[in-house]
């Protein structure tokens, strides 16, 4: 059975396709289980599950929540969440409202840094949803007035250059970062659990260094169940390292492409290693151990 447990619809600020289009694409390439994991949003979950029934694809209700811990910006995947859970919906709403309030200030800071971009283009990139860092970068990349900017030239040529630009210049602690609401990881893990979900740390090599395993250990004590080991963001060395870590710590591992569409054009749906039924079975086993056949409290 082929699976892909990390993908984004247009409910994410940087996703291209609707839930229906995602399910149709998954069906065409033979995926049998998928998870729609939008950034700080559950808006496409129920639609995805409905279309999954029509195409005979298991669609796991899920999300990807941004969080912070000890100065680190972390992405937490929640699987088998209840998309109507009031705490989860409320947290997503709070994050979105803060993002919308910061648009003008973020544009101002980037303009002062020497980059041209327009608010309309930022909103166009995210389909009028709450914008993410990548929406600002994409607006910069597509503005012809930046074509001779050496930094823009450099990052446009890189693989996932918009993501790398975000990490190097706009993310927490970087030169164009502005204060924003990023919930503490304790709250994120608690909210996922309250919604009946299982928490997995997404693409750990992107946000953590090898010497920072203690952070993962802390997250496990707070309720983290495993790591996303096989992903488009990881090198074979990363995969080996985090697979061994999961084996040593008795954590489960997951796999997901992190498909977005045109925001990550080289990332293809379903093109990941170890994408077999055993991964889903392990997730279900953890959920059953935590909650039985019911939901979280």
Question: How are the SSEs ordered, and which strands pair?
Answer:
Elements: E1 2-7, H1 19-28, E2 31-36, H2 45-55, E3 58-69, E4 72-79, H3 86-101, H4 103-112, H5 119-125, H6 133-142, H7 150-156, H8 161-170, H9 185-194, E5 198-201, H10 204-207, H11 213-221, E6 226-231, H12 236-249, E7 252-256, H13 277-291
Parallel strand pairs: 1-2, 2-3, 5-6, 6-7
Antiparallel strand pairs: 3-4, 4-5
Helix pairs in contact: 1-2, 5-6, 6-8
Largest sheet: 7 strands, mixed
CATH architecture of the largest domain: Alpha-Beta Barrel
Q: Provide the CATH superfamily of the largest domain.
A: Metal-dependent hydrolases
Helix-strand category? alpha/beta
Number of helices: 13
- Approximate helicity band: 40-55%
Query: What spatial order of strands do you see in the largest sheet?
Result: 1-2-3-4-5-6-7
What structural keywords apply?
297 residues; TIM Barrel; globular
Q: Can you offer a commentary on this structure?
A:
The structure is a single chain. By secondary structure, the chain is an alpha/beta fold. It folds into two domains: 2-86 and 195-291, Metal-dependent hydrolases (TIM Barrel), CATH 3.20.20; 103-170, no CATH class. Helices cover 45% and strands 16% of the residues. The chain contains 13 helices and seven strands. It has helices at residues 19-28, 45-55, 86-101, 103-112, 119-125, 133-142, 150-156, 161-170, 185-194, 204-207, 213-221, 236-249, 277-291, and strands at 2-7, 31-36, 58-69, 72-79, 198-201, 226-231, 252-256. Helix 6 packs across helix 8. The radius of gyration is 18 Å and the shape is globular.
């Amino acid at each position: 059975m082929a699976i892909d447990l990390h993908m984004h619809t247009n409910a994410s600020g940087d996703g291209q396709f609707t839930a229906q289009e995602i399910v149709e694409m998954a069906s065409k390439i033979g995926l049998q289980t998928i998870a729609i994991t939008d950034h700080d949003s559950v808006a496409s979950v129920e639609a995805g599950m409905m279309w999954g029934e029509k195409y005979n694809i298991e669609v796991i209700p899920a999300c990807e929540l941004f969080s912070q811990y000890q100065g680190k910006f972390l992405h937490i995947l929640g699987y088998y969440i209840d998309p109507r859970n009031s705490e989860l919906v409320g947290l997503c709403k709070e994050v979105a409202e803060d993002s919308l309030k910061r648009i003008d200030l973020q544009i101002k800071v980037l303009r002062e840094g020497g980059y041209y971009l327009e608010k309309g283009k930022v909103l166009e990139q995210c389909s009028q949803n709450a914008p993410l860092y990548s929406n600002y970068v994409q607006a910069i990349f597509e503005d012809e007035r930046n074509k001779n900017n050496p930094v823009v030239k450099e990052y446009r040529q890189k693989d996932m250059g918009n993501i790398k630009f975000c990490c190097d210049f706009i993310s927490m602690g970087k030169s164009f970062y502005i204060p924003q609401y990023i919930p503490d990881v304790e709250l994120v893990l608690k909210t996922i659990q309250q919604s009946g979900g299982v928490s997995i740390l997404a693409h750990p090599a992107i946000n953590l260094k090898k010497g920072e395993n203690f952070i993962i250990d802390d997250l496990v004590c707070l309720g983290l169940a495993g790591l996303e080991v096989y992903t488009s963001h990881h090198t074979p060395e990363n995969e080996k390292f985090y697979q061994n870590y999961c084996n040593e710590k008795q954590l489960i591992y997951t796999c997901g492409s992190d498909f977005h569409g045109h925001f990550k054009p080289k990332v293809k749906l379903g093109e990941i290693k170890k994408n077999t039924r055993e991964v889903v079975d392990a997730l279900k086993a953890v959920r059953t151990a935590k909650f039985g056949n019911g939901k979280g409290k």
